[in-house]
């Protein structure tokens, strides 16, 4: 990565964290309330989702026709379009973890600013789960 890419990544990360904080996506109770569709549902995070989707729909129309990003030689877009068992299993595990903890990785990292114990535990568990997944994937490849 060059300096322009690093500065862009830093600014993007700061904007992302600021947006998560302002929208209260780092508030576990609000997120769990949003996920509780059969109980006392808190629909306020629908505005966050709508804002993110709206900005993406508008900006991608201008960005994707470019030959390459401003600070890189090519776009890195997913090429796979199939849905396999690993994708489904990973999505289910992610959803269970999100529902139990009220965190997903971005908001958990942003929540560290609150100096609360819960996001620290989540981040440690997230790192442990990532390592476990890599070990399982490597052992499957050797078989």
Shape type: globular
Helix content: 55-70%
β-strand number: 0
- The secondary-structure element order is HHHHHH
Strand content: under 5%
Number of domains: 1
Q: Which radius of gyration do the C-alpha atoms yield?
A: 18 Å
User: Which regions are unreliable across 5 or more consecutive residues at pLDDT < 50?
Assistant: none
Please give the largest β-sheet.
none
Commentary on this structure:
The protein has helices spanning about 5-20, 30-35, 45-65, 85-100, 105-110, 115-140. About 70% of the residues lie in helices and about 0% in strands. The two termini are about 35 Å apart. The mean pLDDT is about 90. The longest helix is centred in the last third of the chain and has 26 residues, at about 115-140. It is mostly helical and about 140 residues long. The chain has one domain (about 5-140). Helix 1 (about 5-20) crosses helix 5 and helix 5 (about 105-110) runs antiparallel to helix 6.
Write a compact overview of the structure shown.
With 143 residues, the chain is mainly alpha-helical. The chain contains 6 helices and no strands. The mean pLDDT is 88.
């Amino acid at each position: 990565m060059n300096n322009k890419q690093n500065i862009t990544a830093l600014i993007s990360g700061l904007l992302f964290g600021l947006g998560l904080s302002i929208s209260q996506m780092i508030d576990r109770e609000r997120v769990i309330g949003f996920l509780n569709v059969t109980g006392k549902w808190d629909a306020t995070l629908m505005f966050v989702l709508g804002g993110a989707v709206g900005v993406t729909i508008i900006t991608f129309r201008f960005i994707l026709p470019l030959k390459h990003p401003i600070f890189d030689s090519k776009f890195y877009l997913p090429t796979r379009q199939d849905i396999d068992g690993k994708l489904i299993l990973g999505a289910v595990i992610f959803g269970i973890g999100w529902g139990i903890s009220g965190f997903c990785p971005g908001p958990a990292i942003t929540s560290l600013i609150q100096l609360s114990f819960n996001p620290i535990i989540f981040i440690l568990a997230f790192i442990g789960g990532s390592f476990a997944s890599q070990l399982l994937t490597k052992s499957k490849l050797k078989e």
